[in-house]
Amino acid sequence: MTKETKFPKDFLWGGATAANQLEGASLEGGKGLNLADVLPGGKVRLSVLSQPGFDFEMDTDKYSYPNHEAIDFYHRYKEDIALFAEMGFKVYRMSIAWSRIFPNGDELEPNEEGLAFYENVFDELHKYGIEPLVTIAHYETPLHLIKEYGGWKNRKLIEFFERYVTVIFDRYKDKVKYWLTFNEINGATHFPLFGLGFSATSEETRLQESFQGLHHQFVASAIAVKLGHKIIPESQIGCMLLYAPTYSYDANPENVMYALEEGNLFNFFCGDVQVRGEYPTFINRYFKENNIEIDIQQGDLETIKEGTVDFISISYYMSRTEKKEKTPEEAGAGNLIGGVKNPFLKASDWGWEIDPTGLRIGLNELHGRYQKPLMVVENGLGAYDKVEEDGSINDDYRIDYLRDHIKAMGEAIEDGVNLIGYTSWGCIDLVSASTGEYSKRYGFIYVDKHDDGSGTLERKRKKSFYWYKDVISSNGDNL
Ligand code: BG6
To answer: What is the pLDDT of residues 408-422, one digit of tens each?
Structure first.
């Protein structure tokens, strides 16, 4: 990093997790089952996520369900938060599992044990001066809402969500200032199951169902922002986008135009609605050409306009490269979110292309479009780790990845971007969302737990733990 690149004095350094990927205790403390509880572990999960027609039934003879135990944060949160504090975290991004608060999702009264659990977690964080940043919905729709109501396709979920957020805002108003509404809201059209809590009826209906579900979430998110500002006047409530700057494969204007359209749709559609409070005009043509008709009820657009977010948060793992005409081989290569292989980039063991400059590009794009504070709330390298005979874990590859991305953020700040924080993903090893594996590790803290279910759950500090501690204490100077 060049000497003159400086992170702001009060920059929020920390780490990020989601309830379903680390808490475990899936049926303890009055919690009901949720989406993640019925997703099988292993690579089979990817096909469940991307193919229509999943029935949400568990088959324990055939599959494992790692989210049930996860890394047992539910019982070990004090030990884990002490480790976050040792690294010097200023902020910890976590989510509340909706089904801990409302086990079925449609009850009138919340579950006190669930409320008390998160209260204890927030108190523990504050003991060390760590600010919680809470995602309200992170791939955790209560199973009952999925089975009985069809997930977010059903407008009724807005009402249940409003009850849920009212309860948590009221209860935690003195403990939580930073909130995010829906995790990676724009991932919905690719993987409706995760965010919208339904499996498309068929490939033909996927887009129609997903955009209708998204509309319900836009209204629900805006209601949450309005309520949050009323109940917690000093609150900062953000949206959360899966951001992947979209490059044209080459200088062919046809490909450039295609990349622009894909980028608009994926990166900006949801942001435009949640930040500007309006459906962008480019979506009209897309809806028309794809026979999508959204049921927008009276008052919805006003609600969306009144409930715009205070800041924008993103997950950033990879960029995307697009080409209008792709051969089947080209189309299959590369990232989870599509595109073609970029010949200039290397990829992780899971095929996700590594592109630190893409983060600088993305932050500049978002700053140019919205002029709102930005936060990177997910970024990291999923990798296999090896515990050496002396117990050490030398994850230099992870340090290299994070260093390059932090440098890119420093450059973006120099470019004039208003970046307020960084929480790297999976600061403690946890269950992967897309593949349900333990072996895809992101953490600074190693957890002794393996894909076959074995392991003691013991926590160990990796080399990156000490490195990140130094990054935080030097406010990004020592990389
Ligand atoms: C994001 C999600 O998509 O990426 C996280 O918000 C997820 O929940 C993360 O864990 C990394 O993906 P994966 O599949 O490697 O766990």
So the answer is: 999 999 999 999 999
- pLDDT tens-digit profile of 51-78? 888 999 999 999 999 999 999 999 999 9
Ligand 1 atom 8, closest CA: 433
Q: How many residues comprise the chain?
A: 479
Q: Please tell me the total count of domains within the chain.
A: 1
Tell me, in angstroms, the distance from the centre of ligand 1 to residue 373's CA. 23
Closest-lying ligand 1 atom to the alpha carbon of residue 440: 15
332 within some domain: yes
Tell me if 27 is assigned to some domain: yes
- Examine residue 5 and state whether it is found in any structural domain, yes or no: no
> Dihedral through CA 471, CA 440, CA 374, CA 93, nearest 10?
-80
Whole-angstrom distance, CA of residue 180 vs CA of residue 223: 13
State the helix-helix crossing angle for 356-370 and 396-414, rounded to 10 degrees: 30
The first and second tokens of residue 159, run together, are 């009402």
C-alpha dihedral sign at 387, 392, 398, 402 = positive
Residue 1 has pLDDT above 50, yes or no: no
Structure tokens at 380: 């990291």
Q: Is residue 146 part of a domain?
A: yes
Spacing, Cα 300 to ligand 1 middle (Å) = 31
**CATH number for 96:** 3.20.20.80
- CA-closest residue to ligand 1 atom 15: 432
How far apart are alpha carbons 447 and 322 in whole angstroms?
37
- Give the span between the Cα atoms of 22 and 302, in whole angstroms: 38
Query: pLDDT band for position 4 (50/70/90)?
Result: low
Query: Kind and range of the H or E element at 233?
Result: none
Task: Give the model's pLDDT for residue 334.
Answer: 72
For residues 106 and 160, is the Cβ–Cβ distance under 8 A? yes
CA 296 to ligand 1 centroid distance, Å? 31
> Domain containing 233: what range?
12-473
8 A C-beta contact, residue 250 and residue 319: no
Residues facing residue 92 across a β-bridge: 15, 132
